[in-house]
Amino acid sequence: MRLILFSCIALAGCAAAPMTESECRDTNWYERGRIDARVYTIQPAVDQYARQCAAYGLQAPVAEYMEGWRIGYGEWNTGGRM
Backbone dihedral region of 54: left (phi > 0), alpha (psi from -120 to 50 degrees) or beta? Predict the structure, then answer.
């Protein structure tokens, strides 16, 4: 049980790594959302990304990210059997 809890905390920490300006500009937001949902599954991180990118004067495309997140969560939730 402790291993599972530690793994969840460690993965959440990876999702929280700050984005660079180039990542904000060049990220495929749909794919980032899909991967976040499949790996982290807890909740979308788009608000965090939006704040990080706003520091560079950039706006994260929330709708793209959330569409990818919905798809990724469905893939995770059904084991890829959508």
Answer: alpha
